[in-house]
Amino acid sequence: MLKSLATVGALTLALAIPTGASAQSGLLSDWGLSDMKTALTAAGATITKEGVLDGGAPYVGASSANGMKFVIYGTVCTGTPARCKGANMSASFTLDSDADVDAREKKIDRSAVGVRNAGDNSLEVSRYMIFDGGISRANLATNIEVFIEVSEDIWNGGGE
Prior knowledge:
Elements: H1 2-16, H2 20-24, H3 33-42, E1 46-52, E2 58-63, E3 69-78, E4 83-94, H4 98-107, E5 114-119, E6 122-130, H5 137-155
Antiparallel strand pairs: 1-2, 2-3, 3-4, 4-6, 5-6
Helix pairs in contact: 3-5
């Protein structure tokens, strides 16, 4: 009887631990280019470019359905091809002057993103995600959607 219970317990445990294809649909503890491109497409963005930065980190350029251009690049990346523990989403908007950028930056109050004067009359909007502990594919797409929505609002003069 105990041997049967042990066997049933082992089988139950084995079925509960995802492996192979089911593990791939689970949480992402890091990301690579194909993961990010899939998430961008799920968020309604169009991939415009992809590549690897000088330090080896992958990046993906994209545009929103409304034409806003942005980039996502990896941080804390290892391996070949690189897999990254962090992702930085960034969009930059050119204003008439650095004074306009400074004034606009002071008015923006959106907790979902950071804003800064990136120089050369450019206002940068960014959102950083950490993959430590895992993130679902659906949550990754949702984070991208939030970034796009908030950035487009700022791009169109909102955000206050």
